[in-house]
Amino acid sequence: MYLRAHPLLFALLAATRRRAVSRVGGVLLVHGAEPYRQALTRVPLDRAAVGTTGGAVRELSAGGLLFDQEGAGHRTTRRVVADGLGADGVERLRPVWREVLGRRLAPLAEGRDVDLVPLARELAGATVRALLGATGDPEAIARAAAEAAAAAVRDHLPGPRPPGPARAAAAATARLEALLARPDGRPESALGAVLAVAAVNTTVAALPRAAAWCADAGLWGEAADERLRPVLVGELLRVTAPSPLLPRVAAADADLGGCPVRKGDRLILVARHAARAHLQPPDARRPAPPAVAQLVFGAGSHACPGARLARAQLDDALAALAPYRPTVVRARVDRGAALPGWRSLTVRATADRRTPEHR
C-alpha cells in the first residue's frame, strides 16, 4: 500500500532501512528506535520550517500551535487539549463513535458489504464535531479536513506537484473552519482546526488498515477477547503507524547514532521502522515493549496528545467487527491523501482469510 500511495518515497525508505541513520545529501533518514527518540527529545528542531509538520500546519492556520510551539506556550496548549482528550474527555465522546459503528456495521449481519473508509470518515468527523461543539455535518467535516491536509503537505512530497497548492490549502481550510462553527455562530479557534485535521486524517488512515490486518492475519479471535484486545490495539497501531513519517528540520548541529547532523538538515523520522513494524508482526500474546510501540505517537513533550482517543476508537471498532470475522473483498489505494491509506476498503462477514496485500 505504501508503494502504491507514494512509490518514490517509500522505495527509498525501504532501501535504506537496514541502517539506523542514513544521509542522502542534506536529508537524514532516521530508522532506528534510539536515534528516532533522540531526534525528538535531544536535537534542537525548527518546528516552523517549511516541509515539517509544523510548517504544513501553518498553511492551515495562523500558527501551527501544538506542532510548532515551545516552552510555556506549548505547555498551556497541551493543558487545553488534555481537557478534551484525557480519560474523562474520551469517555464523554465514546457514545458518539459507538453509534456510528453500530449503524454503519449493521449491514454485515444481513450479508451485505460495508466500506470501512466512509465509516472511518463519519466516525472521525462525528468525534471532532462533538469534541469541538461544532455544527457541521460529520462527513463534510472529515472531507474538508482530509482535503486541507492533503493540500498542505502536497508541496513537500517527492514527485510531480500540481499548481496552486497554497490556494488549495487556503480554500480547504476555509471550508473546514465554516463547518467547525459553533451553534452561536462563533468561529472555531485555529487550534480546533488543527485538531480536526490531525484526528480525521490519522483515524481514516488507521482504522481500515487495522481491520484489514485482522482479516488478513486471522486476528479476529484476539479482537473478540476482552483481555487481549487492548494489547492487540497497541500492536495494530504500532504496525500500521497512521503517521508513518515525521518530517523535521534541525535547528542546530547535533549527532544521531554517530551520524553528524548540521543545522538546516532535514530529518525524515520513520515511525514505522523505529517501532519495528517491518520486522515484528502484531502479536497480542508477545507484544513489542511499550516504549517501542509508543514511538508511533512520537516521543517527549511533543508526543501526540490523541493517543488515548486513537486506542479507544480502535478498541471499540475491533469489538464491533469481531463477531462478523469480516474479510476484505475490494480495496483501492488513496493516492491523494496526506497519509497513506485506502480510498475504499470493502469487507464482508465471513471467516475466510485474505492474503496480506491489504495491510
From TrEMBL:
Coiled coil: none annotated. Keywords: Heme, Iron, Metal-binding, Monooxygenase, Oxidoreductase. The keyword Nucleus does not apply. It comes from the Bacteria. The keyword Ribosomal protein does not apply. Transmembrane segments: none annotated. This is Cytochrome P450. It comes from Streptomyces fradiae ATCC 10745 = DSM 40063.
